[in-house]
Amino acid sequence: MSSVDAYLSGVFPPTGPIPMLAASDRALLLDLAQGAPGDAVKPGLFPRARTKLARLALAADGHWDPARLVQILDDATDGETPRPYFPHDAFSCALVHPSIDKEQRRTVVGWVVHPLGAYKPGTRIRRTAWRLARWAVEHGHLDPSDWIDEMEERLLLRDGRRERLAALDAEPTWSSRDVMDAIGLRRGRWIAELPGFHEEGLYYVSIASFGRELCNAVLGGCRKAWVGEVFAAIEQGLERGDSEARNLIVVGLFESMQGHAYRRGPPDLLERCLGPLGYQAWCDLIEGWTGGGVRTVEHWRRVIRNGALERVRWSRGAEWSEVRFEEGHATWLSPSGESALRDEDAGRLLTHLRPWIATALVKRPRHEPVFTDELWLHGPHDTRSVRVAGDLGTDGERWFTVDLSAIPWPARS
To answer: Are 214 and 125 part of one and the same domain?
Structure first.
């Protein structure tokens, strides 16, 4: 068996060297190529391994027009030109063509594997492109030191991910970049995006996208290993990260996840995945945004209102009473008059209503009940009105159960 026959019987991309071609070999390979790189084939659509190997060998021999190869990849990655399939065969041919210089190879590799720009490849396209780039590096067709910084860090090499993670394990203090790598290297899709994220340097925006995808995966019941690995990396980042890195996790990642999960799925689903440091930071963030006493998604969902109060008014038919909070004192008003409210009574009322938390969230009733009570809570920036029938209440958006008798209303004393 000749070297060309052995080559054509193998896999794509080839595990061995591309053979030198004789004149008789070129005629055979042109017949097997069934067109130029990037062309669809009949009766199917995608070229088979034998066809792609023939096109690759001809490219290494300098047969195809190099400008045409570059144009095919430009069209395929501009996000506008329709194509029947992504031309991975043309990509590999561009990496080995002798008339495509080092700078042009850098350009086409950037188009295909770099996540910036209009081109947004799917998972299979991206994985195949990175596999071909690694193959080109390993076989000497592409020099990683001549490309971008991320290639110098060996993220394109087969063992680059493991080497980078091992280096992070040995690092006692993590920067924001380290946190991005520790999380991003756990998932294939994110690995392809990391070079662009590092180039942009907008880590808060980038890690927020990780948070939304992680949240969707957990809510969707994903059981893949990367999910658990990401949560373990989060815990490590909070343990080893410098102040900026820890802030990136809490404000960038957790805030994105909490906003995404606020009304979706079991309230403690994400909290169960967190380690001790992650859970503490998660709860602190919720409390920081929603006010004292609200530290879980479950409590957060049940908050009717939180924040500063200027006035609270209750009414039931002709009956009403009101408390006004002013600087340094509170005033109690009712149909019989008004009087100063003792500090301890005002303190108990504020403690109960900041935050005011429903007993439970419920579905909207089939028939609207007859409301007997209404409570208005006025703050410096908002007003919330809650109508109540028995223990069933609504603020116009949600329905919940609430115990009005538990409010330490001063009228009782």
So the answer is: no
